Amino acid sequence: MCGIIGVVGSTEALATLLDGLERLEYRGYDSAGVALVRPGSTWRARSAAGTTSVAALREQCLAAPEGYFSGIGHTRWATHGAPEAVNAHPHLDCSGKVAIIHNGIIENHAVLREQLLTRGHVFTSATDSEVVAHLIEEQRRGGADLLESVRRTLGDIRGAFALAVVDASEPDVIVAARRISPLVVGTAPGVTYLASDVPAMWGRAENFYVVDDDEIVRLVPAGCSAIDLDGTPVRLRALQVDWDLETAQLDGFDDFMSKEIAEQPHAVRNTLLDRRREDGSITFDEIRISDDELRRVRRVVLVACGTSLHAAHIAKYAIERWARLSVEVEIASEYHYRDPLVEVGTLVIGISQSGETIDTIQATREAKRRGATVLAVCNVVDASLARDADAVLYTRAGLEVSVASTKAYVAQIAALEILALRLAQLRGTLTPFDIDEHLGALLAVPDLIATALRTAPAVRAVATELLGARDYFFIGRHLGFPTALEGALKLKEITYLHAEGYAAGELKHGPLALIEPGVVVVAVVTDELLHDKMMSNLAEVKARGASVVAVAREDDRRIDAVADFVLRVPSAHPMLAPMVDIIPLQLLAYELARGLGRNVDRPRNLAKTVTVE
Ligand code: AGP
Questions:
Q1: pLDDT, tens digit, 9 for 90 and up, residues 265-300
Q2: Mind spelling out the 3-state secondary structure of 193-213?
Q3: Closest atom of ligand 1 to CA, residue 412
Q4: How buried is 533 (Cβ within 10 angstroms: 0-12 exposed, 13-18 middle, 19+ buried)?
Q5: CB 288 within 8 A of CB 373
Q6: Which partner from 13, 138, 329, 562 sits 20 to 30 angstroms from 549, CA to CA?
Q7: Can you tell me the distance from the alpha carbon of 172 to that of 555, in angstroms, rounded to the nearest whole number?
Q8: What's the 402 CA to ligand 1 centre distance in angstroms?
Q9: pLDDT (tens digit, 9 = 90+) per residue, 516-562?
Q10: Angle of CA points 233, 238, 241, to nearest 5°
């Protein structure tokens, strides 16, 4: 998964590309590159400097010649070929005039490369993408213009792509196409842009348009036209954008992760805004599924990846408890390769911050193909997942930049829990009084999160004590279990330390063998009903020499007997506690990562949006 950007007709083409690449770094930062075109010549610069690739590219570009008004840029997350400059995009054809950038994977690249080699093409990288440059070169040699060359080339390639192509023989044109990987066009008077997302063009483009699957666009300074794979003209859909550049800036925080952690009360409050009508009924204006259809639901399947998968685990407890529906949680990357059962009345909910995670998109597409009604729970307006689905419920967390998801996670839980209440309301499985009570508790969560955020100094002190530790186990029971999974994921993601999340009761079935002095056990002990059980589990790990960090309620004094460190959070309704209990665990990961000198916003090997399988 990578970020792409392009511009035609700008006196500040290079600055546009470099600024855009900086904003696209969340999509990958193994290497970066740009290619500029003017009549008869293509100028290219590439750099592979890990997390500082775009900064290094900027340095190189100080030597760029004047007189280029169009170009393309790419920031890479390596799939085929090592993260080295030679594999960085843009890739050129044999003539050096055609340059391409690609986000996605060309699945039949090996066969195509073999064929192209036998026809005399010379390859300079180990990437799957380079075949595209040579395929277009062949079409160009045959006399087709750039648009037609790209259209014909799409017939040869299989896989996922957002592609953009320039050619020094048509220097005022960029041709781009999309299948699965995201692509957006932006326009301003006399300049036209494309990028993987809108923020890359903020401050420059004024109007935005979505390129849909199998659409090919031709950008010229005056605007953009589009065709489908048959060459028939199509109209691009205008995109409503309600985020601005300011939202994407740091506002005085050291990094986006700390900013986004602090924004969590707001993220949940926004997500819950206007969901309750005066008569007490719950409403989702954007959801596009009728009440009757929701009443007919007999089974719910939640598909997601990573942190969104942990939100799904939490939703399972809420939907089962409140709406009395059978719920399964599925790892999206596994779901669509099984032979999943989709019976009448199956509602499949795809949960994704970005709405562009390919595993989740594939899973929901498979479900839809088999007849399920698909609901997307998504943070990015008009993302692919949302567009594919029958219905969408937006989390309104705002732009999330840090690779480690925080505010989108709590917003997902809030959205899914209010959905659970709506299902309960329609099915009559809770009384109006209970629904009102739960809703009231849900609306109080932002304040509880704000209180939990005040644990930051205590967490910092604990992190200082733990800085030498290398092995972590996160444990919890009931809803403490998914919280433990998420705490462990946050820690490993940004500290690179070994961390595992376990159901506390499962520890004795194997992992207890790993507990010894030096291991840290982080326990979520906020559930009153399961407190005794958790205390026994903690006694077991204590007896084997582990250090214990407990996330406990403010009034819990018994925990002091077993925990070395206690992080106290306010009491929340047990079903809603995950949104509060996760706060000290996010902060712990953050403080440890900072203490270890890690780049918290851009952890190694990861990317914010995973658009490869
Ligand atoms: C979260 O901290 C991770 N970076 C990652 O697990 C993420 O949640 C996952 O890739 C799914 O992303 P999505 O929500 O955008 O689909």
A1: 999 998 988 787 777 778 776 677 888 999 999 999
A2: EEECCCHHHCCCCCEEEECCC
A3: 14
A4: middle
A5: no
A6: 329
A7: 68
A8: 10
A9: 999 999 999 999 999 999 999 999 999 999 999 999 999 999 999 99
A10: 155
| Range 366-382 average pLDDT | 91
What contacts 372, CB < 8 A, 6 or more positions away? 301, 342, 346, 347, 348
- Mean pLDDT value of segment 63-86: 90
Question: How far apart (Å, rounded) are the C-alpha atoms in residues 459 and 47?
Answer: 38
Structure tokens at 297: 């639901």
Write down the pLDDT at residue 245: 62
Ligand 1, CB within 6 Å, residue ranges: 305-308, 352-354, 357, 360, 403-405, 493, 609-610
Q: Which H, E and C letters describe 123-159, residue by residue?
A: CCCCCCCHHHHHHHHHHHHCCCCHHHHHHHHHCCCCE
Q: Computed over its alpha carbons, how large is the radius of gyration of the chain?
A: 25
Single out the residue of 6, 37, 398, 352 nearest to residue 184, CA to CA.
6
pTM greater than the 0.85 cutoff:
no
Q: How far is CA 55 from the centre of its chain?
A: 23
Across residues 201-211, what is the average pLDDT? Answer: 92
* Sequence-separated (6 or more) residues with CB below 8 Å from residue 191: 7, 8, 9, 10, 204, 205, 221
> What domains, with CATH codes, occur in the chain?
3-247 (3.60.20.10), 250-443 (3.40.50.10490), 452-595 (3.40.50.10490)
The kind and range of the H/E element at 423 are: helix 407-427
Closest residue by CA, ligand 1 atom 10: 306
* CA distance linking residue 193 with residue 474, whole number of Å: 46
> What tens digit of pLDDT does each residue of 420-445 get?
999 999 999 999 999 999 999 999 99
pLDDT, position 247: 62
* Residue among 461, 308, 481 at smallest CA distance from 395: 308
Cite the active site residues.
Answer: 2, 608
Cβ-count burial of 339 within 10 angstroms (0-12 exposed, 13-18 middle, 19+ buried)?
exposed
**Which of 308, 309, 604 for mutating ligand 1's site (highest number of atoms within 8 Å of CB)?**
308
**d(CA 601, ligand 1 centre) in Å:** 13
Q: What amino acid is encoded at 272 in this protein?
A: L
pLDDT higher than 90, residue 176: yes
Three-state SS at 516: coil
CA angle in degrees (0–180, nearest 5) for 534-540-541: 95
Peptide bond between residue 265 and the one before it cis (omega within 30 degrees of 0): no
Q: Which residue has tokens 């992190």?
A: 463
